[in-house]
Amino acid sequence: MFISLVQSRRAFYLSFLLMTISLLLTRYTSAQSIPKATVRGVVQNKKGEPLPFATVLLQRTTDSTLVKGGVTDTLGQYVFDNVPLASYQVAVQAVGYRPGVSAPLALQLDQLVVSIPPLQLAEDARMLGEINVTAQKPFIEQVLDRTIVNVENSLVAVGGTALDVLEKAPGVMVDAQNNRISLQGREGVLVMLDGKPTYLSSEQVVTLLRNTPSNSIQRIELITNPSAKYDAAGNSGIIDIRLKRGSRKRGTSGSVTIGSGYGRLPKASSGLSLNHRQGNWNGFGSYNYDYGKFLVDIISHRRFGNGADVVINDKQAARSAQFNTHLFKAGADYSPGKNQVVGLMLDGSFNNATDFIVNQNRLYNGQGQFLSDQPMTNDTRLVFGRLATNLNYKRTFDSLGKQLTVDADYARVVFHPESDLFTRSLDQLGRPIAPPLLQRSRSSAEVTIRSGKVDWVYPVNNRLKLETGAKFSFVKSDNDVRFEQQLEDTWRLDQNRTNHFIYDETIKAVYVNTGWTGAMWSIQGGIRLEHTHSVGQSITLAKRMDRRYINLFPSLFISRKVGLHHQFRSTYSRRIDRPNYQDLNPFIEIYDPVNYYQGNPFLQPQYTDAFQLGYAYKGQTTINLGYNRTMNVIAPVNVQDTQTQQIKSTVENLNQLTNFNVSIGFPVSITKWWMVRQSVDVFFNQYQTVYLAQALDNRQLSANVRMNHSFTFPNEFTAEVTGFYNSPTASGTVQLVGRGQVSVGVQKSLWNKRANAGLNLSDVFKTMRFGSYNNFANTEILFRGQFESRVVRLSFTYNLGDQRLKSTPQRRTSSEEEQGRVGPR
Q1: Which coarse location class applies to the principal site listed for this UniProt protein (predicted)?
Q2: Which pLDDT tens digit goes with each residue over 627-645?
Q3: Domains in the chain, start-ordered, CATH in brackets?
Q4: For residues 212 and 162, what is the distance between their CA atoms, to the nearest angstrom?
């Protein structure tokens, strides 16, 4: 039954349509003999930000008798249903704010749905000075249209990297073997930094995340069905990594962090952040340093060829790496008027790393007879740098929220790896059977990014809002690889493996969004048009690829509230995932004596239609059902090179991927001091294609489980236990093996919360292994690996400045506006 459902697109389209229509019809299926009204509204602070979990009371105006009560949701909204017709007022209370009361309202027959203007509460300075609020956001926070990982609140995330944290996020899987990231079982994720695309290849993105300290991250947001306002790139959605910004308090404040760790080798980290806000000016800056050494153990069994040409390879590899990472950010905001902000920001990173790999390769024929030993060493030095600037402007025209935002960005990324390879051929007794092979590569990859965008928001009234905007981006990637081989003590250029590849891409986009919000219903629809022009040119091979195409990307969002605590929604969006320019580069990269990689200049974009039905209870417990169909799937493929008797790793377009997924997230408050957050993702992947005259049908039912336990103890002690497990998963032509880990952390606040000290241990049971199995196109590969994942870390943070400084009204830059569009602060 399940497989037949997967194969029947029409059945699912029909069921999705019927379920959406049934949600719409519920609006008209309830009738009451006695007319009653609905009262709704939102609670905000003076900055217009929502106040979640505020107490809301509906009282009679005559004697203040309580009629109904409730708590605002994560968006600060509240709803009272089935209210008898009479005269009322709404009273609101929130910790740290002065109580507020609405103007009287009279419910009458001609208006059974009443929207109260936003109730804005003022901060109570006396309460803020006297009360210590110990509550904080959970590590995993589920809102209606995205999942938020609050990294800065996690004890087990201290001292790690962005990639470590991403592994713990619900529905996220990192394929370390192929440097690919997937979300809910689907690859093609758009990774963004502070709301902006990185424009890097998948390998470079993983390198960037591996070299980004977790101490510099505020939160990570997972958006599976973005609206037309966002770039259409990202087959499975968007992962937006938000770095820490300056404080919003007047005066000077900041913090200093130091830490150290040890697994099999030492690690260390440190960081400094400062912020000064005075008058109409705000300046901020931060710097983080991360140092570490780590080990990776790898084994593989490979069998390829036919008949008498079968070759069997057993490989063992030991990898030793060291990195030094510098990450910085600086900027300033200026408010020339009450409703205007101009901002300038500069951020970047620099990484200097070394990587030494020792490969032991033993070759056999199809009958298991020994052929040769081919030990190989690969000594790599890597310099990675990134520098980005942003100039932004925002103006708000009225209290309804009419506003204009403008962004201009320039970024430059450099990637310079150098490798020295030494390969020997030995017989069974370790005697040379051929001269040693000395090779070296010198690579230079430079990416230049220029982009700009304009967004205009026009609220027609308090229910109807129009949005439109335009964006352009120019990306130039220049990759120059020189490969040399030593012959007779002279280094000579290898023309077959040397390549200079230049890739230029221009994307121009416009979008329109319309949103309507009623008492119980919300509808948002939009469409985005993108024109893409890309040119890939191999200077060495004299090959040129020139493409132009225009695409439309519609999106639709429908939600309905049922009472105060229940909300249903249905969404649809169309996405595109363009090939990485590194995958388009036809140059050859040697992995080991029997395996090499070559790019594919003929790759086509992949397109995805994504449907989702969702339910939320109190904005915390969520259930989502999704269906996604991707055409021209971009996936890694391993095939036999009959000319060289090697395995060729490349990237191809498979016919299609069908994905069904169910995700459930729910919090459990066991006691006042013990809070649990659980999430479960179950998904079914089916990859289908015909490649080299062979049919592929790779399917797998998989599950991802995440848990987070938070403990609050007396004497300012807190603790945290997190864990996850990813079951085996189908990915392209391979099956990824299951893996998981459990991590623990404890923290102690010191000196009236002036400082805190933390201790954490990652991968307690040392279960964080990775691997895959491939059996396609006469090539069988079994791959296993073990990272240095069990690490104990100690950290200390000291807060600078006067912690009692009063907060100033928030002045957002246009990049902060992007943060507001994708989730709460």
Answers
A1: membrane
A2: 999 999 999 898 887 777 7
A3: 1-31 (no CATH), 34-130 (2.60.40.1120), 140-821 (2.40.170.20)
A4: 6
